Task: inverse folding
């Protein structure tokens, strides 16, 4: 006899309909946010020092995410024996993008902060799609009235530049700006490698402020479980992921690719461990620049990672 378990409502295949993230409901009214997780785009790339194009990141990630719109049944992971994102209990919405004022960093960042603040006020978890890494600055600014957070940066570059030719809010500055916040209890940097945009003095500054810095080789040498021990447990975590943390062989669509990067399961297993040992209160994924990747695999990687991460955040939140 045929199994009609999933024959309810529209089939709604990935190429059908409007591209919200994961095909979750779009909510235009930011005073009407009621969800466990809220997606917002921050399509700003005027902080880029090299190749621009990450302003198109949110749109491309949303389109790629339709491949992982799991419909009525959720997403079953046979390795974990868990169904993530079950439709009957998953409350995820997409509120669109913060308004961007071309060439105006201050006003654009202000609009991004406003959107993240609206999400936080609703008690939802903000998941922000960049945009270049400077969008992390207003994201962290929005936590000013929240409890302390520990930032976990997954990235090829340290981004701990204080000021360069008067620039303090570009994509090389976010971790330095975060370190200045009284409510940021610490920063763990993971994936930092090779020739960096941050000078030696920036590394010394980061370490003196209490940051722990791990390269890709460090993780592979000591293993994920040992690296997790270096991250303070039972904290409120804000995770910021630069797609250039991944190797360009799987993530070529970014402004500053850096060889020797991570592969998918290395980061998924790391994120799984982070989620289990603390409370994720926010996340941004930045620097996806789709025009440098004709295969769209970078956007697909970003969408797949986010869907799997959100699934784990919600699953373990319910367990706790």
Result:
């Amino acid at each position: 006899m045929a199994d009609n378990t999933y024959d309810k409502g529209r089939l709604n295949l990935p190429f059908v309909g409007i591209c919200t993230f994961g095909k979750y409901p779009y909510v235009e009214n930011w005073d009407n946010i009621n969800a466990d997780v809220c997606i917002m785009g921050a399509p700003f790339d005027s902080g880029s020092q090299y190749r621009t194009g990450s302003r198109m990141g949110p749109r491309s990630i949303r389109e790629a995410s339709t491949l992982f719109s799991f419909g009525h049944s959720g997403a079953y992971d046979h390795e974990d024996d868990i169904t993530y994102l079950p439709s009957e209990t998953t409350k995820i919405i997409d509120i669109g993008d913060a308004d961007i004022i071309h060439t105006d960093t201050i006003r654009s960042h202000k609009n991004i902060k406003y959107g993240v603040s609206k999400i936080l006020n609703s008690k939802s978890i903000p998941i922000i799609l960049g945009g270049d890494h400077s969008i992390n600055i207003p994201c962290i600014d929005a936590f000013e009235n929240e409890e302390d957070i520990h930032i976990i940066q997954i990235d090829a570059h340290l981004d701990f530049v204080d000021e360069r030719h008067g620039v303090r809010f570009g994509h090389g500055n976010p971790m330095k700006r975060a370190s200045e916040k009284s409510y940021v209890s610490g920063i763990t940097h993971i994936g930092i490698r090779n020739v960096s945009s941050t000078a030696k003095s920036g590394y010394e500054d980061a370490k003196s402020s209490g940051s722990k810095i791990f390269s890709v080789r460090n993780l592979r040498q000591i293993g994920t479980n040992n690296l997790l021990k270096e991250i303070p447990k039972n904290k409120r975590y804000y995770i910021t992921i630069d797609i250039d943390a991944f190797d360009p062989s799987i993530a070529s669509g970014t402004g500053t690719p850096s060889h020797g990067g991570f592969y998918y399961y290395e980061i998924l297993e790391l994120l799984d461990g982070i989620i289990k040992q603390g409370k994720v209160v926010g996340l941004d994924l930045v620097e996806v620049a789709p025009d440098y990747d004709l295969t769209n695999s970078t956007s697909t990687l970003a969408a797949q990672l986010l869907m799997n991460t959100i699934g784990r955040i919600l699953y373990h939140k319910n367990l706790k």
